[in-house]
Design a protein that fits this description.
The complex is a heterodimer. By secondary structure, chain A is an alpha+beta fold. Chain A has helices spanning 12-25, 30-42, 47-64, 72-106, 112-136, 172-182, 207-219; strands at residues 138-139, 143-147, 153-156, 160-166, 185-191, 195-201, 224-227. Helix content of chain A is 56%, strand content 16%. Classes of the chains: A alpha+beta, B mainly alpha.
């Protein structure tokens, strides 16, 4: 590594040399970039080191070549794998719930038809419980806590919120435009069932204001598929 | 920043791309002009895409795949040195994105997150490949089975020798050089991809460059550094 001069802090030159590759790509934060600028101004001989980094960058670009878009077959093969994974996950998940219900809760006591009904009822109960748990987590005055589909728990700013499911094939640009026109914002999500949390106004809104906001959302049926009551 | 290769003159700005149309446009081929504002637009779009993927939206997955497959494939190809293995690995990376999109924390950019998945996957494969004596620190000692740079020195210019030396660097050094120079990640982003602190990132790149320099010297090229 390079030697330090008498006027430099120990290791200053080493640190600057370590930063040069990022300086060459313009990816240093402002403070470090200013530090390198100042050092280069005082030590012109280090420009030669910078030119080494620039040469390395140029050759790395050549070695890697351009990024190419995947072929149609590659995309379709991958999407087919996604489809298969989706089927497996759905199957495994319903098998897990249904199988457990059958084995543990109902099999010893009921006939096959009764088992199917009981399993469906148990599944529904789980969904209802999840909804109740979700609503218990809501504290509109201090902010709203909710859980995403991935199981993450997040707290967001105070306000009045509704859950919205957007039309599945809707372009993002149209969803964003619609929310912007209504002066609403997407605050979080997705939650289970593909719902997004949409802020429709401040924490304190009258019933009429809430109803009007929900009605405005529902009128955008081109974008919005389903809206829940306000939280 | 690497550019998407272009098959025709049709040009579409990323911010005007819709889920339904982007797939078609990608296959039709389009230019990928990337100013900072446009890159930001794409980043916003990537975050929205991942949100939709977490809700099992296949069309969003298709867009994300088309958008980043080339870059991920290139990244793992350079690690694996096997086209078939790289193809499979890239697909596995995107399958993992599909499975764990709900756990994306929004602390890093989506691309950094995807590259970190690719890094971990590639490292796992390399570990298996060298299972008998794998240690993280020793990974840098794994020599690549390529021609000696000296062979290239006999007939190639300086740039070509440099490129040949890149190719013969150990995978971990090649990886960090690619992440910094080709993928143009910041120090913080490289830390996120590799899962190591910034001191390690800086030292690893420095050592990679030093190794490169030693190889160049062996090949008869003295750049006067370090």
């Amino acid at each position: 590594m390079a030697m330090n001069t008498e006027t430099e802090k120990p290791g200053e030159r080493d640190e600057i040399e370590m930063l040069l590759p990022w300086y060459a790509t313009g990816k240093l934060d402002q403070a470090d970039a200013r530090r390198v600028d100042a050092y280069l101004a005082q030590h012109p001989e280090v420009q030669a080191r910078l030119s080494l980094s620039l040469a390395e960058r140029s050759e790395t670009m050549q070695v890697n070549g351009p990024v190419t878009a995947p072929s149609k077959q590659t995309v379709e093969r991958f999407m087919a794998r996604i489809g298969r994974a989706k089927v497996r996950e759905t199957g495994a998940s319903s098998e897990r719930i249904g199988g457990w219900t059958r084995r543990v809760l109902v099999k010893p006591f009921f006939s096959h038809g009764q088992i199917q009904w009981a399993a469906a009822a148990a599944t529904l109960m789980i969904v209802v419980q999840a909804a109740v748990i979700l609503s218990l987590l809501m504290t509109p005055e201090q902010g709203v806590r909710y859980e995403t589909a991935g199981g993450r728990s997040e707290v967001i700013a105070p306000g009045t919120y509704v859950d919205v499911r957007f039309a599945p094939d809707m372009p993002l640009s149209r969803i964003a435009a619609a929310m912007s026109e209504l002066n609403f914002t997407i605050a979080g999500g997705p939650k289970a069932g593909g719902f997004f949390l949409v802020r429709i106004g401040p924490a304190k809104m009258s019933k009429d204001e809430i109803q009007q906001a929900i009605a405005a959302l529902r009128r955008r049926s081109d974008v919005v598929q389903f809206v829940t009551g306000a939280k | 920043m690497p550019r998407m290769s272009v098959n025709s003159s049709e040009s579409v700005q990323p911010h005007s791309i819709t889920l339904a149309s982007e797939h078609h446009q990608r296959h039709a081929g389009f230019g990928n002009a990337r100013g900072n504002g446009v890159a930001m637009e794409q980043q916003i779009d990537d975050r929205a895409l991942i949100a939709r993927i977490a809700a099992s939206d296949e069309s969003a997955m298709r867009v994300l795949f088309v958008r980043h497959h080339g870059r991920v494939l290139g990244f793992v190809r350079r690690m694996m040195r096997s086209e078939a293995m790289a193809e499979e690995l890239a697909n596995e990376v995107f399958l993992e994105v599909w499975r764990v999109a709900g756990s994306f924390q929004h602390r890093s950019s989506p691309l950094t997150w995807i590259l970190s998945i690719a890094h971990n996957r590639a490292l796992n494969v390399l570990r298996k490949r060298y299972e008998a004596n794998w240690k993280e620190d020793e990974a840098i000692e794994i020599a690549d089975e390529r021609d000696d740079p000296e062979v290239a020195a006999q007939k190639a210019d300086k740039g070509e020798i440099l490129r040949r030396c890149f190719e013969t660097l150990p995978p971990i050094y090649r990886e960090i050089i690619d992440l910094v120079y080709y993928h143009e990640l910041s120090i913080k982003e490289v830390c996120e991809v590799l899962g190591v602190p910034d001191g390690t990132v800086k030292t690893r790149l420095f050592n990679a460059r030093k190794r490169l320099e030693a190889m160049l010297e062996e090949a008869g090229v003295d750049r006067g550094w370090p």
